[in-house]
Amino acid sequence: MSLLSVRNLVIDYARTRALDGADLEVTQGETVGLVGESGSGKSTLGSAAGRLLPQSARRGEGEVLVAGEPVFELPATRLRHLRRRHLGFVFQDPIASLDPTMRVGAQLGLVLGRGGDVSFHLGRVRLDDPRVVRSYPHQLSGGMAQRVAIAMAMATAPDLLIADEPTAALDSQVREEVSNMVFSLAAEAGTSILWLSHDLPAVARRCDRVAVMYGGRVVESGPARQVLGNPAHPYTAALAGSAPAAAAHGVRLEPVPGRPPVLTGPAEGCAFAPRCPFAEERCEHERPAPVRIREQDVLCHRAADLEGTLAQRRSAPEVSA
């Protein structure tokens, strides 16, 4: 069953196009990593799933379905019900995601409703100190605040948790612990995860599937082992080869040449063409349609030609068996 279905979604911010016909599926019980450079559209897509976009955002076309419900067509009351029943969110900045005027216990109590056990849910994220309940967000460390945000997001056992770089603002010592906490609680509750991240090795270790974004579109998606270990899109191969966290000692990183595009409208051809070493003339003026290569869905005119030539880079992230 598909929990989240994004189809040909176009989102503009004033004169900047953030999503240029994005497609994504997340099914019941799976974990999906959404990766790509800054500006690729990851956060916009994640926010669109709950209709949490800023007022400056405009949907040009496409749709988002959550548990079969058309998110952008729902009235406010039904949208609130859908968010409460089906969705949980954990954002990058834990302090900013919490209400600075309310104590932690009061905020979690609003999520749980009357009779909810605040101490139990804080205990699940290893915040057993009773002082946490009485604290304001600014009185907590970043790691503690993020655990509170996780407790709030998972308190209602949502069908889908959308986590947007949830460990990026944390010290390296607590990142792994917080990540373990999220995936453990989700597995316990049967919650699917959409994990937005720049950390390719972490995504490779934890996610069932990976979707790679570039220029506001998902250019490759499929099983994590295939997408990150044997990519079918030139951008995926370049991204894996430039990941610092995955580089072996003494291996020279190969940065992706050029800069990501800043779109002002629909890309005329393939958005990656100016940076792609395999681009040909049609890539500049013909938008690629999805093709199936092995177990991956790929947006590339030359995907079939390049099969087997996009060798796994020595610095590509390891994918656990």
UniProtKB/TrEMBL annotation:
PROSITE patterns: ABC_TRANSPORTER_1 (PS00211), ABC_TRANSPORTER_2 (PS50893). The keyword Ion transport applies. It comes from the Bacteria. It is a peripheral membrane protein. Its EC number is 7.2.2.11. The complex is composed of two ATP-binding proteins (NikD and NikE), two transmembrane proteins (NikB and NikC) and a solute-binding protein (NikA). Belongs to the ABC transporter superfamily. This is Nickel import system ATP-binding protein NikD. The lineage of its organism: Bacteria, Bacillati, Actinomycetota, Actinomycetes, Streptosporangiales.
